[in-house]
Write a structure and sequence with these properties.
single chain; alpha+beta; Beta-Lactamase; Arc Repressor Mutant, subunit A; 3 domains; 41% helix
């Protein structure tokens, strides 16, 4: 086994963007056409499969995801021991795959005669399946046994590297930044995963939830949040569902902020659900990653956050923090040069740095994130 190939595999732990290079490198080592890393959700879940492709065309992969995620090969590989390399053809009756629509629509047009698979334990949850697959052409199946042995030698390394990628993805810098900013926020703040379950709260949210005054924990099935008054629960549920849809890429619209009554008679709470940027690593959504930030604004709460705290939490310069907070306070980017006394190019540069440091991708995302914090006051004004 080449040391350079192992370096390539473990290099993906530090940089998840290199997994496609890993798939190509292993495919070359095996003499395969290309490789894929795939997760197939349980039947009937409504979730689309997730894939990373290494030198494989997108068109057949799209057809696979839309129509043939559960094909005879997928069915058969669920019975293969985790981490064991195997030829997909060896798992089905000889010649049977050629009689399927999956073969006619996906395999035959691109000359894929067999796939060498590794069933990955981490993707086998509640009926799902997934792992590594390397496509062989007709010419490549003449030495299938040898190629399976080569992949079997690599399997422990591929699986360990993927374990580490998912683990680090769950603890990526974006999540650490969110944790740091959470307790600096002036109001209650709660992070939700892709299922709407609570993953983290700040001190203000914990205090609010303990009082059960407006917002409460709903422990049915999993820990979630709900309105204390039953009649207000549908509106809150819809707002959270819309934000989760946008965060997952399945939705395009957000609900208006929701007013929640307080059984104590205190002023109503205002709840805003903010979708968080998706990780660039496609499989990050399979771990308990924060997908939505729920900000609960209590009109009676005294603001504690400051521009300097925001600046420190995200590593922004003073100039970058000023631009971001002006944007959040409703000032359009086109008006900032005149307000700050700088060029439009300087404003654009500051915004680009803000996007990079906060993990956002647009002025809208950045504005939503910083709008939850106090805008700059007159005493904070100055020249960048």
């Amino acid at each position: 086994m080449e040391a350079s190939l192992l370096d390539l595999i473990y290099g993906a732990v530090a940089d998840s963007q290199r997994w496609d290079d890993v798939l190509v490198g292993v495919a070359d080592h095996l003499g395969a056409v290309g490789g894929m890393l795939a997760y197939v959700p349980p039947r009937g879940s409504g979730q689309p499969p997730t894939q990373i492709l290494g030198r494989l065309p997108e068109e057949p992969s799209t057809i696979f995801r839309e129509h043939y995620a559960w094909n005879p090969w997928t069915e058969a590989v669920t019975k293969v021991p985790f981490g064991k390399a195997v030829s997909a053809n060896s798992l089905v009756e000889p010649g049977s795959i050629q009689k399927t629509a999956f073969y006619a629509d996906v395999l035959a047009p691109w000359g894929h005669a067999d796939i060498l698979d590794i069933n990955y334990r981490g993707f086998a949850v509640d009926g799902s399946v997934g792992g590594f697959g390397f496509c062989l052409s007709e010419r490549g199946i003449d030495e299938t046994d040898r190629r399976v042995r080569l992949l079997d030698d690599l399997s422990p390394h591929l699986c360990r590297a993927l374990d580490a990628s998912l683990l680090l993805g769950e603890r990526a810098d974006g999540r650490r930044q969110l944790s740091a900013i959470l307790d600096l926020m002036p109001n209650a703040a709660i992070l939700l995963d892709r299922h709407g379950r609570v993953t983290q709260t700040n001190r203000a949210a914990e205090a609010l939830l303990r009082r059960s005054d407006g917002i409460v924990y709903d422990a049915t099935g999993s820990l979630q949040i709900a309105a204390a008054l039953t009649e207000e629960r549908p509106a809150l549920s819809r707002a959270l569902k819309d934000a989760l849809g946008v965060a997952s890429g399945l939705g395009t619209s957000l609900s208006e902020p929701v007013r929640i009554s307080r059984p104590s008679g205190a002023a109503p709470l205002l709840v805003l659900a903010v979708p968080l940027p998706r990780s660039s690593f496609p499989f990050s959504d399979l771990v308990a990653q924060a997908r939505v930030l729920v900000a609960i604004i209590d009109p009676a709460a005294k603001s504690r956050a400051t521009a300097s705290a925001i600046q420190a939490a995200y590593g922004l310069t003073g100039a970058e923090a000023r631009v971001a907070l002006l944007l959040a306070s409703g000032v359009a980017g086109a008006h900032m040069p005149a307000i700050l006394g700088v060029s439009s190019q300087t404003v654009k540069t500051h915004l680009r740095h803000c996007f990079e440091k906060t993990g956002t991708h647009s002025q809208l995302e950045l504005s939503r994130l910083f709008a939850l914090l106090p805008p700059i006051g007159a005493s904070d004004e100055g020249t960048p």
